Amino acid sequence: MNRRRSRRISHSQRRGAPSEGQWRQRDKEQWQGEGKAQVRQADEEEQKPRQHEEDTVPKGTCQTMCPAQELRDREAQNRLHHFEMLPGTEKDRRPKGDPSRAVKEYSRPAAGKDSTKPSDLRPPPVLLKTVNYLINDIAAAPSLYPWTEVYTFVFDRLRAVKQDMIIQRMSGLDCVGILERTVRFLIYASYRLCGEPLRLYDPRINDIHLQEYLSWLLDCYMTKTGPHPNQEEFQSLSLLYNLGSARTMQHTMQLPLRLRSTPNIKLALFINQAFLERNPVRLLRLAQKLNFLQTCALHRHLMTCRQDLLLVYSHGYSSRNCRFPLDRLAKLLFLDASLTAQLCRSCGVEVNKDNQVVFSKAAFTEPGQGTLHCKLYHSIASEKQRDLTVKNIVQSCVETNKK
């Protein structure tokens, strides 16, 4: 018994053997080591899909605005636009393409067609160069071609640029630069081509694409890839273009206070408030403080605003003996007297031979579709354009607000 106990004691107290506390410490270190290894392994496994995903994203290698193969195919199929033809060959049976002017056209994804070939995709710097060419050399060029044709060409080539951007999952400052120029171009086009026949310009299609570009641009601003010096401009353009939209208003109110307090966004918020309150007099007065491109974004709401003003005055001044001076009404509408009289008659409001407006709530009628031509009432925007060229407007609209 004693011998057995002494053997047990001597075994536990053998020289070099760890004590109970040392065993516990060793187990703890071993457990921590295994935990760190597991965490490291989990991180590596999490990074593998990301690295694999990045490796599978196509990267464009085409260094020209139009891939060489596409240019050859369109030459053979006689599908070159005259903006892309080599000078001197326009009247040939098969005109030749100018590599310095040809731009990749938009094509819908088709079954069996590989749209991710690097040789057919343009990297971000080439895409930005392409957009600058479309704006500076095509849209802004003084030519004999009608601007509807210029718009159709540029619009199609910008869709091809967007397609390359999406396939390459493009982001960052180059992406923002392309989107800003595209949004400016489409907003300007919505003003300049307003009232054109549908076969030449479809405002609904332009609006759909503009909303997509604008939404993408505002999402880019939310990422920390800045700085974005033009964010104030485009946040205000979004609010003015989508006047009365609860979603756009909510997005604007979630912006940081320093951005929300900038002059352009504050002015856009005041105009939006006047629109929601159906206060057309205040809205039209505030619209005078907008720069040209901001007025282009707002212009599609101005006709409705002017009709609301006539409706409000038809109720407020409805009396047999009440006469309202036409000149004063023209100042409120920011139109000349002849256009004001034309607008009044279109809404059933009488203008007598003494240039006095006779309001009557019973006589007011909504003008029929196609009765009013919006382009005739663009005076607010046209006065602000002055000597601004398309290049100035689209590349950088730096005109300051009028105080």
**In percent, how helical is the residue content?**
55-70%
**General shape:** globular
Helix/strand class:
mainly alpha
- Rg, Å, rounded: 33 Å
Strand content: under 5%
InterPro entries: SAC3/GANP/THP3 (IPR045107), SAC3/GANP/THP3_conserved (IPR005062)
Domain SAC3/GANP/THP3 conserved: 65-352
Pfam family, one: SAC3_GANP
Organism: Astatotilapia calliptera
Q: If you had to describe this structure to a student in words, what would you say it looks like?
A:
There is one protein chain. The chain is mainly α and 403 residues long. Among the domains are: 59-105 and 119-226, no CATH class; 301-395, Arc Repressor Mutant, subunit A. It contains 17 helices and three strands. It has helices at residues 2-12, 20-56, 68-76, 124-139, 147-167, 173-192, 203-222, 231-241, 246-253, 257-260, 263-276, 280-287, 292-316, 326-333, 337-346, 379-385, 390-395; strands spanning 324-325, 350-351, 356-358. A three-stranded antiparallel sheet has the order 1-3-2. The chain is globular, with a radius of gyration of 33 Å. It starts with a helix and ends in an 8-residue tail after the last helix. The relative contact order is 0.07. The model is unreliable at 1-15, 48-53 and 397-403 (pLDDT under 50). Residues 47-57, 83-107 have a biased composition (Basic and acidic residues). InterPro entries: SAC3/GANP/THP3 (IPR045107), SAC3/GANP/THP3_conserved (IPR005062). Pfam families: SAC3_GANP.
